[in-house]
Amino acid sequence: MEKGSPLRQFIAGVTVNIASIMVGTSLGWTSPSGPKLASTDTSPLETIPTTSESSWIGSLVAMGALIAPFAAAPLAEKFGRKMTLLGSSALFIVSWVLMLTAATVVQVLVGRFIQGLGVGFVMTVQTMYIGEIASNQYRGALGSLMQLCIVIGILYVYCVGPYVSFAGLQWACLAIPIVFDVTFFFMPETPAFYIAKGDKERAIESLSYLRGKTVEGVQEEMQEITTTVEESLKNRGTLVDLLRNRGNVKALIICCGLITFQQLSGINVILFYSQNIFASTGTTMDSAVSTILVGVVQVLASGACPLIVDRLGRKPILLSSAGGMCVSLAAMGTYFYLKYTNSPSLGSLGWLPILSLIFFVTMYCVGFGPLPWAVLGEMFPANVKSVASSIVASTCWVFGFLILQFFADMDAALGSHWSFWIFGILCAVAFVFTFTLLIETKGLSLQEIQDKLNSKS
C-alpha cells in the first residue's frame, strides 16, 4: 500500500484557516475599539455611541452571521467550497473599508453587519471544506485548527489595537483577507464536491494531491468517497430529508446542542468586552495587558487541541472542557460577589480574575471552542451536509446575538456575579448533555459514523 504524506492536506487546512483569522479579527475587534469609540480624543465618529448603540455594534456581527449560512450553503453546493470561501473575503474587505472611512455610528453598524455576513460564510463553508479534504486519521486535528486560527486573529487585534489609532487597526485588519485570497487561490477544491458534480477526473487529481500519492494509490479511498457521496446524492437533501432520517436527527440534536452550549458559556462576552471586564475588576494590572495575556493563553491552548484530539477523542475533551469552564466561571462570579458586597477579603484576591479567565479560555479553547465545529464536519452525509451546516451555524449565532445584545441589561439588573454564575450553571448542563448524548467519532470513517448514528443500540 502506497504510504503518501499528510503534508499537503495540512497545508490546505492551514491555508483555509487564514479565513478563521479574518473571523477572529472581527470577534476581537470590539475589545480594543470600544474604548477608542467611547473617547472624544480617539473616536473618528461625529458622536460618541450610546450604551444601546454600543450593544448593537457588538451584536450585529452575530446577526449577520445568523443570516449568512442560508446563502453560503447553497453557494457552496453550486460553485464549490473553494470559490465560496474566496468570495467571502470580499465581505471582510468591504467592512474594513467602511470602518476606515466611518464618520457616523450608522456606518460602523453597517460595517459590523457585513463583517457578520463574512463570519457566517466562513464558519459554514469551512467546516465542509475541512471535513472533505481530511483523511480519517487527521480529520480531528484539521477540524480543530479553526479555533486556533480564530484566537490568533483575536490576539492580533488585542496586541495591535490598544497601541495604534482607530484607523491603524482597520488597516491592520484589512491585510488579512487580502493574504487569504492570494494564498488560498492555489489550494484544491474538495474531491467530494467534484464527485457531486460528476467530475471524477478532477476529484482523483484533487485527492491524489491532498494525499501525496499517485492516482493508483488513492483508488481505494476514491471508491469509498464516491460510494458515500453518490448514495447520499441519490435524493437531493432538503430539510425534510434531514429530519426524516433517525441518524440525521440525532446528529442535528448533538451538533445544535454543542454549538448552543458553546455560546451559552459566555465566551463572546469575554472575547468582545475583555478590556472592559478587566477594567471593572479594579485590579492593578493594566486592562490591555491582561487582555493580551488572555489572548496568548487562548492561542497556546488552541494549539494544543489538534495535538490531542485524535489521541484522546472528542468526548473526553469536551467533558473536561465543560467542567473546567464551570469551575472558572464560578470563581469569577464569586470575585464579583465579594466586590459587590465590599468584602474585606477582596484585597487578597486581586489575582483571581486574571487566573479565572486564563483557566476559562484554556478549557474553552481545548474543547468547546474547536470541537463542536469539528464534530459538525463529520456527522452528516453529503446530501444534507449543507442544510445541516446552515441550521447549526445559525443556531450558534442566534444565541450569540441574544447574549451579546442583552448581556449589558442582565449585568445591570442582576450584577456581574450572577451573570458569571449563570454562565457557569449552563456549562454544568453542557457537561450532562455531552456525557449523555455525544457519540465518540475518533478514528471512524464518515460511513462508520453514519452507521453508528443510525444504530438502535
TrEMBL record:
This is Facilitated trehalose transporter Tret1. CDD domains: MFS_GLUT6_8_Class3_like (cd17358). Keywords: Cell membrane, Glycoprotein, Membrane, Sugar transport, Transmembrane, Transmembrane helix, Transport. It comes from Anopheles atroparvus (European mosquito). One of its GO terms (molecular function) is sugar transmembrane transporter activity. One of its GO terms (cellular component) is plasma membrane. High-capacity facilitative transporter for trehalose. Does not transport maltose, sucrose or lactose. Mediates the bidirectional transfer of trehalose. Responsible for the transport of trehalose synthesized in the fat body and the incorporation of trehalose into other tissues that require a carbon source, thereby regulating trehalose levels in the hemolymph. Residues 12-442 form the Major facilitator superfamily (MFS) profile domain. It is a multi-pass membrane protein. Its main location: membrane. It is found in: Cell membrane. The lineage of its organism: Eukaryota, Metazoa, Ecdysozoa, Arthropoda, Hexapoda. Belongs to the major facilitator superfamily. Sugar transporter (TC 2.A.1.1) family. Trehalose transporter subfamily. The chain crosses the membrane at residues 7-29, 56-76, 83-106, 112-130, 142-163, 169-187, 251-273, 288-309, 316-338, 350-375, 387-408, 420-439.
